[in-house]
Amino acid sequence: MKNYMLNIAKKSWAIALLIVCCLGSSQQSQAQDIHFSQFYNSPLNLNPAMTGLFNGNYRVTGNFRNQWFSVPVPYMTFSGSFDARLFPFKIENDILGGGIQFNYDEAGDSRLSTLNLNLSLSYMKRISKSFFMGVGVQAGYGQRRFRTDALTFDDQFNGDVFDPNITSQDLSNLNKTTISFFDMAVGLGFRYQKSRRTNLDYGVSLFHLTRPNQSFMGGDVRLGMKLTGFVNSSVKIHQQWDLMPHVLISLQENYREIVAGLSARFHLNSNIGREAAIYFGTSYRIQDAIIPRIGFNYQNMWTVEFSYDVNISKFVPATNNNGGFELGVIYIWNKVPELGVVKTCPIF
Description:
Layout: H1 2-23, H2 43-46, E1 58-67, E2 75-85, E3 95-107, E4 112-126, E5 131-145, H3 169-172, E6 178-193, E7 199-207, E8 226-236, E9 241-252, E10 255-269, E11 276-285, E12 289-298, E13 302-311, H4 316-319, E14 322-333
Antiparallel strand pairs: 1-2, 1-14, 2-3, 3-4, 4-5, 5-6, 6-7, 7-8, 8-9, 9-10, 10-11, 11-12, 12-13, 13-14
C-alpha cells in the first residue's frame, strides 16, 4: 500500500502539469471572478486544499485591491481569512485544516457588489518524509446586489433634458436588486518540503460546483464553474538568497487568466527567532499587465507585500497604463503545547 501511494506521489507533478497545459489551450481573456495578482497570498481563494497548509498553528490573511482608479468608477476588492491546523498536537504526521473566509467586491456606477462567506476543510496525508498530498472542500453563502440611484438610461430623456423622475423601462423589467445563493468548491493539493527554505506547492481546484443563478431579472443565468491550476515554490540558491517562481492558470467558460512570475528573496538575518528578509520581483498576466512587487518577511510570522499592475491591455486608452494597486498581509503564529500532568514523588 505504501509503495502504491509513493507511485501516486511521484506522478502527481506530471498530472498537475498536464492539467495546467490543458487549461492553457483555451481563448485568452480575464476570468469572471474576483482575482488577485498576489494569488499565492490568498490561499483559500486559490485552492481549499491549502487550508491549514503552513508552518504554524494559526494564520490570518488580508488582501486589498484597488483596480483602474483612473477610470471614473474604480474596482475595489477585499478578502480576509482565518485558518488553522486542527488538533496539531494529536495529529503528528498528517494535517487537518479548517478555515473561514470573507470576500467583498464592488464595481461600476451601480456599485455592483459580490459578497462571499465560506467555510473550508482540508486533509493532507504525509506520503513520505518530505511529501504531502490532500484534498479540500469549501462551502458557503454568496450575495450579489446593486444600486439604481446613480444609473441613467436613454428613455429618461424627455426630448429636451434628462428627467430623473421618468422610470426607465429597463428598471421596470428588473425582478430584484439582490440575489443570494449557495456555492461550493473542491481542491486537490500537493506539497514537497525539502527544507525550511526549499519547498513546492501545486494543485488544481474547481469552484462554483453549484453553478448558482446570477440573474436579477428572473431568468436563468448560471455562474460558470472555474478550474484553476497553480504552482508556487521557493528554492534556496545561496546562504542569503532564494528564488520564488509562481504560475497560475484559471479557466472559466471562455475566459482565461494566466499569471507567471519570479521573485528573489534576500535574507537580512537567518538566525532562528530573528529571521528577516526582503524580496522583489515581477509577474506577467498574459495580454493584460506587468506586475512589479516588493515584500518583507519577519520571523517567519509576518509577510507584507505591495504590488502594482501596469496595464498593457486594449483598455490602455481609458486607464493611461494605470492598473491595480494591491496589498497582501499574512500573519502566522504557533500555539505553545500545554504542559502535561506533573506527578510529584511523596516524601516519606
